[in-house]
Amino acid sequence: MDPVRNPYAPGAGQRPPELAGRDRELQQFDVVLERIARGRPERSLVLTGLRGVGKTVLLNALRSQAIRRLWGTGKIEARPDQSIRRPLASALHMAVRELTPRHRDPEQVDQFLSVLKAFALKSAADGAKLRDRWHPGIDVAAASGRADTGDIEVDLVELLVDAAGVARDVGVGIAVFVDEMQDIPPTDVSALCAACHELSQQALPLVVVGAGLPHLPAVLSASKSYSERLFRYVRIDRLDRDAADLALVAPAAEEGVEYEQEALDALYTATEGYPYFVQAYGKVTWDHAPAVPITADDVRVAAPDAEAELAVGFFGSRYERATPAEREYLQAMASLSGEVDGTVATSDVAVQLGRKPSSLSPARDSLIKKGLIYSAERGTIAFTVPHFGIYLRQHATT
């Protein structure tokens, strides 16, 4: 098999050649875009799921849908302990620039850009040195009295309302996409929820689409109680059998390559339908297969190499980020989580390690912050990475 023609794409956030199993989400978002464009009230959207299920890929696909409808779009990736003020200002700047050529009132656009600049400049503390201030590439003077209080909740509401006004005058909308949404600092989460609430109440054409780990709804709910009704939550899970097969078969068919049914059976057993694993195993199996069709024997021969690549790039890179104390916590979780890597009680981890639960709180909280585990519900935790417990039981040591 020619490796140059290998169609599979196991990169982080990289769109696979066949975006299988996500038709329903794509169709629903088309309805959201159309309703907002017509002035109908609609909720912002939040995608949740484990690592490797394709949240970022789907987020990018939804953005492409908005672009095809000539909406203004911008995207940010949230980071722990970093305010969203700067990245969000950059994203909105990009979104409005996409709309500017079609806007009939350049003065209104400049007025918004002056507000945007005022909002962005508040990312620097008062009295900060010139070299520490951020200077956005906006060729208008910063506005005074709009989105410049320094209170992120007040400023963000005003900024997004003004941005929506620019889009409304063009007859379209603005979509802001936020990846790793669970990492937004609490104050900024509260501000974003308040802004989305105001946009929804006024039926303004601006929508926020977030993606994050399974505990993201709890993060939003802890910020604003009404967030449970403010967002439409969509759980992104592993692919069912038909979709997983399609993700393998469709791109191979484009290259004139077929799979035997037993090969597809073996691949689904190995990947359990997790999109990242489907792409990883598909790529390595293709490279190992000597001829068409691809057989179950080809899958068996390739499996050790696929597992080795995942052990280094998918599992190992995450494990290496953990401190010795955190690794001890992870391994205790792995020993308790069973073959399916289910949820684990924090009290059981303490018993397993012979420690008081309170003494393990720093390690647990740090692992949550690093995105390696999440709190499924009060008193329990689980891995954010599918098959991570299996990896730890087979490979990792303190």
Automatic annotation (TrEMBL):
Residues 168-319 form the Cytochrome c domain. PANTHER family: ATPASE DOMAIN-CONTAINING PROTEIN, DNA-BINDING PROTEIN-RELATED. It comes from Phytoactinopolyspora halotolerans. Keywords: ATP-binding, Heme, Iron, Metal-binding, Nucleotide-binding. Gene3D superfamilies: P-loop containing nucleotide triphosphate hydrolases, Winged helix-like DNA-binding domain superfamily/Winged helix DNA-binding domain. InterPro entries: AAA_16 (IPR041664), Cyt_c-like_dom (IPR009056), P-loop_NTPase (IPR027417), WH-like_DNA-bd_sf (IPR036388). It comes from the Bacteria. This is ATP-binding protein.
